[in-house]
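Long-time lurker, finally posting.

We've been working with DAGKc domain-containing protein (Coprinellus micaceus) and I want a structural starting point before designing mutants. I don't trust myself to interpret raw outputs, so I'm hoping someone here can both generate the structure tokens and explain anything notable. Sequence follows.
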Amino acid sequence: MSVSDTRVTVRLSSSHHNITFHWTEKAFYILHDVHKAGGPRRSRTHDVSHHNLLRVAFDRAMRTVTVAYIKPKKKKPVASLVVLEGKVHGDLLDDTVEAWANSVMQSLYEDHGVKRCKRLLVFINPHGGQLSRYSGKAVEPVFKAAGSSLTIVKTERQGHAFDYVKELSLGDFDAIVTVSGDGLIHEVLNGLAHHADPLTALDIPLAPIPAGSGNGLSLNLIGIEHGFDSASAALNVVKGRPMKTDLFSLTQGGKRSLSFMSQSLGLMADLDLDTEHLRWMGDTRFFYGMLRGIVTFNPCPIQLSMKVATEDKETMTQTFLSRIKEKTSRVKSEEVGKPSSGALPALKYLPDDNEGWVTFEDPILFVYAGQGPYVGRDYMAFPVSEPDDGLIDISVMPVTSRGDILSAIDGAEKGSNFWFPSLRYYKAHAYRVKPLSRKGNLSVDGERFPFEEFQVE
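Top reply, 14 upvotes:
Generated this for you. Predicted structure of DAGKc domain-containing protein:
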């Protein structure tokens, strides 16, 4: 009997009515058969997508079946975990039920290249309210329902996660999870980069549970609709497949750091770093910072030089759409290769290398460089960025007028600002910045860096 021919009926211990589970290639169906004393018998069926189904398990000793899945958000603001458990009802043999459960799990995980029961290293900042977010209904219960093994590290100071992963025993974990904003992700990545075997260390998948103001990485991994939803992010940890992405090397004062998302100066750095004291506002603080910056309208005192690959927006768009189409056609067969090992690759561009570099001559209001597309749910900063094209997306806004800036941010949540005539957009191999004043802000992945000369590739 095939898995799709098998229907398993159990009697729920919680409500004492029968439900029937049925796996098909399309979805996992749950039929509720409700019969209250003195009332009519009622039945209803709902389906669970394969992606949202976490676990199907059979306990032979107790003859119970447990089904755990994520219920998508509809009227509720977030998705939620549902766990159903009941004794097998009917004449199905234990061997049949066990084979059915094993076949369902095989289809959910191994057949899609996903490891089940992952070993997770979870970093939590208990001082930022993230502990309650993790231990509530949305995150830890999802990991446990999926059978994950958990190692929890509550960070006690800045740099704690950096020091922990720098000495990490490789092979002990299938993924690293951060319950935080983007800052802790930045710290973990740089800790891995300082490991004795950084390439192997950086091959460990890193997955965020959104608990910050921007949550850019979460938005880019699971989408604008779910990017702030902890349960959806936990589901991604359990069911997601590893993907490769570019990292940026930032050198400043002889020190090399990694950046995974963005570097900003001028207005875009000010609206982030100068509103740190307003974190209680959530991501609304960025809009407030933007309005304040438009009022003050301070130019960014820097010299920007770039090793440009292209600045033709039409060419970028066509290349982007072609690569998206190509990736969609091969996504099912795509496999992540075995990790390299050894030291980080050497830098390609030296600080005194000027051949083929161009300098932006106009006064600058802001520079925003990185990859995305999203840096926040209200700002698609890099709409034609790709995770693995080996290039840096750089948007530069010259000093124009306040009206131009207000027009440019209209539709920014959908990337419409990309086409605004005054906004210059580049794909570059590298860029460097030389401050022309001592006063200014440099934000790297949302973290404050010294406002000093630096280079990125």
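Before you design anything, note these points.
Residues 313-330 form the longest helix (18 residues).
The radius of gyration is 25 Å.
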